[in-house]
Amino acid sequence: MSVPKNVPSLLLIGSDVALADALRSQVADVFELETIAELSRVAAQVRSQLPAAVIADFRIVSGGGHAEEVLLDEFAGLPRRPLVIVLTGQECPEPIERHIACTGAVSLRGPVDIDEIVSYLPGFDSDGLDDELTELEVAEPRVVAEEDPEFVLSGLTRRFETKTARLQMMLSDLEVAARHDVTLLLIGETGAGKTYLARLIHEISPRRNEPFLPIACGALPSDLIESEMFGHVKGSFTSAHADKDGKFIAAGQGTILLDEIDVLGPEQQVKLLRVIESGEFEPVGSNRTHKSQARLIVASNVDLQPLVEQKRFRPDLYYRLNMLKFDIPPLRARRPDVVPLAKKFIEEQAAKHGIEIKSIEDSLFVSLLSYPWPGNVRELEHVIQRAVIYCRDGVLSARQLPAHVVACQPGPGQFAPGQFMPGQFSAGQFSGGQLGPAAEAGPLFDRFADDDFMRGSLGRQVALSEREIIEQTLFQNNQSRTNTAKALGISRVTLYNKMKKYGITK
Prior knowledge:
There is one protein chain. The protein is α/β, with parallel strands linked by helices. It has helices at 17-27, 39-48, 66-76, 94-103, 114-119, 165-178, 194-204, 222-230, 247-250, 266-278, 305-309, 315-322, 335-353, 362-370, 376-389, 403-406, 450-460, 462-476, 481-488, 492-502; strands spanning 9-13, 32-36, 53-57, 83-88, 106-109, 151-154, 159-162, 184-187, 212-216, 231-232, 244-245, 255-259, 280-281, 290-291, 295-300, 325-327, 359-360, 395-396, 439-440. The chain has 3 domains: 9-133, Rossmann fold (3-Layer(aba) Sandwich); 151-327, P-loop containing nucleotide triphosphate hydrolases (Rossmann fold, 3-Layer(aba) Sandwich), CATH 3.40.50.300; 335-502, Orthogonal Bundle (Helicase, Ruva Protein, domain 3). The strands form 6 sheets. It has a 5-stranded parallel β-sheet with strand order 2-1-3-4-5, with helices on both faces. A 5-stranded parallel β-sheet has the order 9-12-15-8-16. Helix 4 (94-103) links the parallel strand 4 and strand 5 (106-109). The radius of gyration is 27 Å and the shape is globular.
């Protein structure tokens, strides 16, 4: 029977062809079935053409279900919320389970039952279904890696590469702003790459052949920040034994990065606003007015709006800077970039320390993907440096990583309410079987394909890594199952089941 025009649509998220065919045969008279395998495409599709219902096949997820939770949250925020049916295995990832509990989405666990799925759809009832399709026998679903295109922003000496859609959009806007003579505000956690990005902005700007001078406000005593920026004259304060040019003079027509702007005091904020507006300033202790010709980039590791509300930051300066604000996402929100960054750092550190890396085991990347990186890109670089230094046989694996990274137990971080908390990205939330073969390391590690890793390693290799992580975490918590479950971010029941599965005894 042909589908009438203006028929409501039913969206199936997943790559299981057998499931799609079975659903299509059941709902053809009522719905037009659309299927999308890549999570990155779903949100835009739903916003442009709101379906009557969504069936999310999350029986296999990579990354513990956090990307899937974000997508489900987008559905819940739509003006007209579609019916959402979530298919999972018997063990539902905790982020997805939490969303279902909060929103009332339909949760179906275990083997797929077409009758049960269709019975929840509007316009159907269980009495009118074909008995021949009551039970669906399908092949085990496979993990499909999202083929995110890579965005590259290149300067004279550096480049910024990312496969994260959110960061790609930000970099695209930033590239346009960088080519114009405007003040930019970069917001991002410590180690997220603000200084690196500021240097790149300078290199793609018309000022690329002029000096780039950073000022780390947080590393300077408050009474010296103004002198560092604007300079001082001899005798203006106790240690001023000679005249000194500040960065605004020394930079000439180059670029100044003013990092940790949030530590500036009220008087310094007033003077900075004046420089931004008119370019004018006076060195400390001088009555002579200078005019800056430098381009200014300011950065902070905290959002400035709460500081305005707390009357710690001037509203006029905030609104002046906020016109061109760019938020740099933390590394835990850039999971597609973790493996490419790790490979880049492995190559750099191997060359720096003269160490030959012959191959890379999948376990290394699984541990890196599981860890939340509270120290962001800088922490990842230091962890890779340590791993390369301790690699004595030419084979990099999780064995060379720090214990807290393997156990997914980060130290103090910069997590805000509602963001990732330690333990949510435990390797135990991946599903699969045995470890895949180690990757061969070429000059650029190009023999280790990211997509192959995401399809194969994340879908197959967890058993050995998961057992090792559980055993290590039990040891670190004196065999306390309660504390171990809390550290891994899973329930005690889940921990007991996994210990039983792997034959782990106290």
